[in-house]
Amino acid sequence: MLEIRDLALGHGPRTLVRGLDLEVPAGGLLAVLGPNGAGKSTLLKALAHLLQPRSGSLRLDGEPLAALGRAARARRVAYLSQQSRPVAVSVYEAILLGRIPHLGWQVEETDLKAVDAILAHLDLSRLAGRPCTQLSGGELQKVLIGRALAQTPRLLLLDEPVNHLDLANQLEVLALIRRTARDRDLVTLVVLHDLNLALRFADRFLLLDGAGGFVAGDMASLSPEQVEQVYRVPVTRCDLSGQALFIPR
Which CDD domains match (predicted)? Predict the structure, then answer.
């Protein structure tokens, strides 16, 4: 369980988030939504301890995140930023890099088994020896997620993980993230721009308006009025073959 209490975030004189109280249970997927500049990435960076909140507290399974040292945090929190890029190593080596927080003087058999298990889980075993620079966008994103999972985190933070992927890869990667959150019982937050992808894959949402305001709840409760107020676009929520959709009008 991630507990956020009275959190305030901002840049310079601008307040992006004010008084945020939120509990995020493990095993589900929380979609962080809002227009550009609303504070979505800022929130994930605060959770990853990459920037200091103006106020508030963050607890993971009852333990203050601020109290964790660098090594302990790297074993508990995995953060995948928008700017993640391929490195000139093999798929196997890239995922093994995620084991660094757990390594002693050398790589152990347990580390190799962990990588093998992740490769199998992500259906990447056939690509284990391929250079990351020769992967498709969808394959590379799965490798980056695999590297994050190799940390064996409790909290998984993904900032726009499908932003540059085609539709087929967006669906595959988000289905993989949702399944992984459930199978590994992770606290998972995903920044998304596409409301309909959020409706399809997320269990809960946090909608930021960029002026300090927010609304959160079950995905099924996200209303057209809430979307219109934040995005300034009239929308209709409808049902198509059992799948909820927001359609601009």
Answer: ABC_Iron-Siderophores_B12_Hemin (cd03214)
The pTM of this model reads: 0.92
Q: Using only C-alpha atoms, what is the Rg of the chain?
A: 18
Mean model confidence pLDDT for the chain:
91
Taking the C-alpha atoms of residue 162 and residue 175, their distance in angstroms, rounded to an integer, is 11
Residue 131 DSSP class: B
AA letter at 175: A
Please tell me what DSSP assigns to residue 55.
Answer: E
Do 17 and 43 meet the contact criterion of CB atoms below 8 Å apart? yes
Integer Cα distance of 37 and 249 in angstroms:
24
CB 92 within 8 A of CB 107: no
Q: pLDDT tens digit string along 83-93?
A: 767 678 999 99
Query: How many other C-beta atoms lie within 10 A of the C-beta of residue 209?
Result: 18
Tokens for 14, please give them.
């601008």
Protein fold of 2-248: Rossmann fold (3.40.50)
Handedness of CA 227, 232, 236, 242 (dihedral sign): negative
Close Cβ partners of 246 (under 8 Å, ≥ 6 residues apart): 195, 196, 199, 224, 227, 235, 236, 237
